[in-house]
Input
Amino acid sequence: MAGRAEQRTGGNSSGGNGGGIPDGMLIGLLAFLLGLTLLAWTATGLAGLFAHGAWPEGVTLAETPLSMRRLVTAPHDLPAAWPNTPAGELSGYGLFWGLFIGELMVLLVLTVFVLGVVARWRAVRARQRAGRYGGGEADEDAYEDEPVRARQRHEPRRRARRNDAAVPMKHTPADTAPLPRTEAAPAVGSTPGPRAEPTTATTTATGAEAATGPHAERETSPEPSQAPGPAPDPGAPVVPPLPSPRAPVVYGPATTRRPTAVQAIREADGPALVVTSDPTVWAETKDARAKLGPVLVYDPGHLCDTPARLHWSPTAGCEKPDTAAARSAALLAPVRPQARIDAATADTAETLLQCWLHAAAIDGRPFRQVHRWALGGSAHEPVRLLRTHPKAASGLAGLLESALTAHPERREMAKELTVRAFGALSSVHIREACTPNRADSLALESFADEGGTLYVVGEPIEDPRSGPGAMPLLTALAAHVVEHGRRMAARSTDGRLDPPMTLVLDDIAAVAPLPRLPELLANGRATGLPTLALLRSREQARARWPQGV
Output
């Protein structure tokens, strides 16, 4: 045994050190010397080339090691370092050493850059192997190097993912005979043998009924009447408690809403629509979402620090009268009065805007033309388009003309409501956001199929009826994406999106108050549109949606 052990250690038992110089150190030293030789050779030749226009005669790679030895003793005497080269063909020592040090610095920078790229590549590969959240199939070597506490913390999660079946129970010697299927399991303290591990069936809790830490301790601690048994086997798999489902509506300040929104966005497996007033939500999740699909940002107010912003026109898709009607309702939702006495005025404004959107869409007009019509310029031009254009829907021309000619006071109030909704178009950023190109249109229509993410970011406005800002545009785009998801779900075989489109609506009442949010919260999950609405308070929700959320 001693001989074999000595043979494995290299046969060097004297002193205990042994081994000599490592091979890696020798290879590194040789590479370092070779690199210095190449640098000295190229620096001498380039210095002569720059000084006299030709490579010096006799400056060869074979002569460089001896020349370097002479340069160490006399750094300022370059002709003495190269005795076989005419002194007139060599440059001064200043140019030579300048080139030599410059080449050395470039080489060091490139080396550091390559090492950084390799380190980042290895880190990305390690995270991919470890899973999305670092708790999946981690690298075994890294796992063995973790501290004991971290290993114990991750062990239940790792075992639970590997074992989807129920926890196997340990039987006492008295229970070796097979039991019938209908026979109940023996009580924990009924046998004098080793006590079986308690298995707690954790049911799904909601709200305040979710399991807490002290409650879990009461479940796992033995009762006084039970006989104490041996400690549970650490090798047996442990099933962690099931997480409670997130409530569809969360109330709280920004400090509470932000981590909830970030977690929901990171947990979304499929496409996601994110509406928020906090650019930090976009900054903290965009990189993780970019690994799953394209990331689009609709930011008319330029709140996010990015040049890649989505451009979208509210007239898109309004060639269909139903789409134009839904778009007009979404655009006017932030400024629509809640009083019943103003319902007729709001309906007239929606009718006017529906007809204007349809007329602009079929004739290829930009969205700013709708703003001009709302201001009163060329009031009868959309009527003419709806009567003469071959793509115009029947009946809208008469509907628009009747709204413009009947009830002058109601018409003026409806126009004023529409102009108020488009007041932000005086800003250059807002007008630019409403001028799309073909790439933006294709990206918006395909991001859901590609598992992408759309961020709709805007300033929070508590009372938009006086100054809505970009809120009408944000509301219209969010409603358009939700309706697009519903149409995709209706075309699917089972009537729902798979994978689902997650809707994270942070500060939705102050950014983009969707008119159909209550219906979305009630039926969205069934159609593959799980929705999380984060609001400041219940009073804010009741003020925006009196029917309740």
In short: Residues 246-312+436-549 form a domain with the Rossmann fold fold (CATH 3.40.50). The mean pLDDT is 78. The longest strand covers residues 272-276. The beta strands are 249-251, 272-276, 295-298, 453-457, 502-506, 531-535.
